[in-house]
Automatic annotation (TrEMBL):
It comes from the Bacteria. It comes from Halomonas lysinitropha. One of its GO terms (molecular function) is acyltransferase activity, transferring groups other than amino-acyl groups. PROSITE patterns: GNAT. Its EC number is 2.3.1.-. This is Putative N-acetyltransferase YjaB. It holds the Pfam family Acetyltransf_7. Signal peptide: none annotated. Residues 1-141 form the N-acetyltransferase domain. Keywords: Acyltransferase, Transferase. Coiled coil: none annotated. It is an enzyme of class 2 (transferase). InterPro entries: Acyl_CoA_acyltransferase, GNAT_dom.
């Protein structure tokens, strides 16, 4: 079931984000992710519309939208590769006629995932915090 997140769930969502980020981005120092955790909990998630995926009374993933921009899409690493990310994105896409997102260019798995969903790369930049190249991807109906 996909439903709106509650603020009480933010610590759990940050835990999912942190574990999934470390797994998906081995090219970024783990300390960088830990340093961003408070920002995620206190600034980024509260500024977004956050939806969670619940399975068996357990939150296993979430996405965060700020207007038509996907700020975050993360699934608990323990249950990845079962279509949960696709389900979350399908939910997000039904409520929007267009979506943009930034993804680390070296995260080939994520870039491929978004391409399969119809996103294309429209711009590139260097992430000011990490120095890593990022791709701006866009989708529209």
């Amino acid at each position: 079931m996909i439903r709106p997140a509650t603020r009480e769930e933010y610590p759990h969502l940050v835990d999912i984000w942190l574990r999934a980020s470390r797994q998906a981005h081995p090219f970024i120092d783990e300390a960088c992710w830990r340093a961003r955790a408070d920002d995620m909990a206190l600034r980024r998630l509260p500024a977004c519309e956050v939806q969670v995926l619940e399975a068996g009374r357990r939150v296993i993933g979430f996405y965060a939208m700020h207007d038509d921009h996907l700020e975050a899409l993360f699934v608990d690493p323990e249950v990845q590769s079962f279509g949960h990310g696709s389900g979350l994105m399908a939910h997000a896409m039904t409520g929007h006629s267009s979506i943009t997102l930034w993804v680390y260019s070296r995260n080939v798995r994520a870039v491929s995932f978004y391409r399969r969903l119809g996103f294309s790369i429209v711009d590139e930049r260097e992430d000011p915090e990490t120095g890593e190249p990022e791709s701006l991807m866009a989708w529209s109906r």
